[in-house]
Design a protein that fits this description.
The structure holds 2 protein chains of 2 kinds. Chain A is mainly alpha-helical. Chain A is built from 16 helices and no strands. Chain A folds into 2 domains: 39 residues, no CATH class; 209 residues, MetI-like (MetI-like fold), CATH 1.10.3720.10. The model of chain A has no long low-confidence stretch (mean pLDDT 86). Chain B has a domain of 181 residues: MetI-like (MetI-like fold). Chain B starts with a helix and ends with a helix. Chain B contains 15 helices and 4 strands. The mean pLDDT of chain B is 87. Chain B has a two-stranded antiparallel sheet with strand order 1-4. A two-stranded antiparallel sheet of chain B has the order 2-3. Classes of the chains: A mainly alpha, B mainly alpha. At the A-B interface, helix 1, helix 2, helix 7, helix 8 and helix 9 of A face helix 1, helix 6, helix 7, helix 8 and helix 9 of B.
Chain lengths: 294, 343
């Protein structure tokens, strides 16, 4: 009862808050709905010179294709431009990045959470500085050595680079999750005769999954959303989705080509929607892990 | 944990970071001291039948390729790249300083130099978007917190979308809507009664557009952090404040806000780091004519047929310096806390 009273709001404040929230939710969701809807129209509807409402009813789409919806954009992107290959490359990159960064990250994060020497602090601070490095500055350091070593353009190079760029964030986040697992747990296992690694393997790993899943989600997002690294380090045939979409934009002169990009954008956003839908709780807990627990 | 065990656990992660973050910084510094080889020019005699012979100066591509293979870094230039017109431009800046009568004129001339143009946008973006994100995120958190329980999940789902979407894709989606033939662009034309209005044509509007995107993209992050923080605000303190006669606004101002202050620091830190590297929206909005950022000029040097490694590296070093300046207060504070926490 008392809780309800302390947070109760007057009708005016409530109305104001709800109005504000409605505005924000429209701003947050409408662009996605609009682009999804528009991706099934022709270019002269989605970018209408006459009237933006054409995109709603598909006036030109009916004239040009005979139906109010058309899959021409998707057909162009997936079949004509080979967007499927880019999707496959993205799949390889994200799966490998997530797997490798979690393996490296759990080991490092665990060590950092269980050590109290001075150097722990310095490693964490260095990681924080590394986290702040704009990715493109690092890319300008990679290119020349990679050209010389002949490893530029391959997916494997990009995967390792993304893993490394991801490490500072991963070890910080996993450390904060490991801090929440009581030290007594692994220490008592060691009293019983386990080595440190056995304690980690048989005692910690079974209870660490929530933190690992959350961190894995963010590793996935970093690999999936990256543009600076993938655009500069991958050769044209190895491109992942995001640089592929960027390269669609270069050839917008032809009629219809913009709709390829629109369709590709919708295709690339769909997995993220599903991700948020199913892992909302983990995302929220992950974003707050660093903040609330210090 | 013993030093040796610590090392073996830390090793994979440490090697990855050393090889691909620390070493590249060294590599960037080295590259920044070199510039591209000068073009090798040779004079050849060009004879056409009946036309006689002319002497022509052409670029010797073979010799250039050989030179490049021998010394891929280029020729040593010291700190010359840092001070040339495309970077810190010391000569130009001092000339402007002496020739301009007012500070405004000086600033305008300075803005004509590529590095300062990028720096001014990067700084303006960083220091305007960060506070706006914090304010908007806090308001959304308050509003969502007031929703009935069953609507909260839905509101959080939609609120998360702008942050989760790939930055380049998010900016493209907004760019297509704001296009003068898109839905928002046309609505604005009608609202402002200006059929020729194009957000891309004016630098000021482009800046605003990019910053609106930045706030749209990052506000969910601040919102989620604040929202989680709001769940832990002690209810007794709120209630005693109410009994003491604090109005709703006073309760937010004097109880909730101080309680959430550490979160503000956290969000500000993360946002400063992320906004300083603003890059994708400029590509997505094709805004480079009116707004460039430090990251974007590095990208611009690196793409294309003739990659300017020296120039990109010098800008990178200056950017890293900027990051260091940005982080110094945080590092000093953390160091003090760390020292204070130990006996």
């Amino acid at each position: 009862m008392s809780e309800a009273r302390a947070t109760r709001r007057s009708p005016t404040v409530r109305l104001f808050l709800m109005g504000f929230l409605a505005l924000w939710l429209i701003a947050a969701a409408f662009p996605f709905m609009w682009t999804l809807w528009g991706s099934f129209k022709v270019q002269s509807d989605f970018f209408s010179i006459q009237d933006w409402r054409n995109a709603l009813w598909g006036t030109r789409t009916v004239i040009e294709t005979g139906a109010p919806f058309t899959g021409a954009g998707y057909e162009g992107a997936w079949i004509q431009e080979g967007f499927g290959g880019a999707v496959f490359n993205t799949l390889i990159v994200t799966v490998c990045v997530v797997a490798i960064s979690l393996t490296f990250g759990t080991l490092g994060g665990y060590a950092l959470s269980r050590s109290s020497y001075n150097y722990t602090f310095w490693i964490l601070m260095t990681a924080l500085v590394f986290r702040a490095m704009p990715h493109i500055t690092l890319v300008s350091g990679y290119l020349l050595p990679f050209f010389e070593l002949n490893i530029w353009g391959y997916l494997s190079t990009t995967i390792i680079v993304l893993v490394a760029i991801n490490q500072p964030f991963t070890i910080w986040m996993l450390r904060s999750f490991f801090m929440n697992i009581p030290k007594d747990l692994d220490e008592s296992a060691m009293v019983d005769g386990c080595t440190r690694f056995q304690a980690f393997r048989y005692v910690i790993i079974p209870v660490m999954w929530p933190g690992v899943i959350t961190t894995g989600l963010f590793s996935f997002l970093l690999a999936y959303n990256d543009f600076a690294v993938t655009a500069m380090l991958l050769s044209k045939e190895n491109q992942t989705m995001v640089p592929k979409i960027a390269s669609f934009l270069g050839s917008t002169q032809q009629e219809g080509n913009v709709m390829f990009a629109v369709a590709a954008v919708v295709s690339a956003t769909a997995p993220l929607f599903v991700l948020v839908l199913f892992f909302q709780r983990q995302i929220v807990s992950g974003l707050t892990a660093g903040a609330v627990k210090g | 944990m013993k030093h040796k065990t610590f090392l073996s656990f830390m090793l994979p992660s440490a090697i990855a970071m050393l090889l691909f973050i620390a070493l590249p910084i060294v590599s960037v510094f080295t590259q920044s001291l070199f510039i591209e080889h000068e073009k090798v020019l040779i004079t050849v005699e060009n004879c056409v039948p009946l036309g006689g012979c002319t002497m022509e100066t052409v670029v010797d591509t073979e010799a250039a390729a050989k030179l490049k293979a021998e010394r891929p870094l280029g020729q040593f230039n010291g700190f010359g790249t840092y001070t040339n017109r495309n970077h810190l431009a010391f000569d130009e800046v001092s000339a402007f300083w002496h020739s301009s009568d007012t500070l405004g004129e000086f600033a305008r001339q300075l803005y004509g130099l590529p590095f300062y143009k990028a720096l001014s946008f990067t700084l303006a973006y960083t220091f305007l978007v960060t506070p706006l994100v914090i304010i908007l995120g806090f308001c959304i958190a308050l509003a969502v917190n007031a929703l009935p329980r069953m609507l909260k999940g839905l509101a959080i789902f939609f609120s998360l979308l702008p942050m989760m979407v790939t930055p380049l894709i998010g900016s493209l989606i907004l760019f297509w809507m704001i296009d003068s033939r898109g839905v928002l662009g046309q609505t604005l034309q009608v609202l402002l009664n200006d059929p020729d209005l194009s957000l891309r044509a004016s630098p000021a509007l482009t800046w605003i557009m990019l910053m609106v995107y930045g706030v749209w993209h990052s506000a969910p992050f601040a919102f989620v952090v604040f929202y989680a923080g709001l769940q832990t605000v002690p209810q007794d303190t709120l209630e005693s404040a109410m009994i003491d006669g604090a109005s709703r606004w006073e309760r937010v101002r004097y109880v909730v806000l101080p309680y959430l202050m550490p979160l503000v620091t956290f969000i500000a830190l993360i946002q400063l780091m992320d906004n300083f590297r603003v890059f994708e929206p400029i590509v997505g909005f094709s805004a480079e004519a009116s707004a460039t950022s430090l990251s974007w000029i590095i990208y611009n040097d690196l793409r294309g047929e003739f990659q300017l490694f020296g120039s990109a590296a010098a800008t990178s070093m200056l950017t890293i310096l900027g990051v260091a300046v940005l982080l110094t207060p945080v590092l000093i504070r953390t160091w003090r806390d760390f020292k204070g926490a130990r006996p």
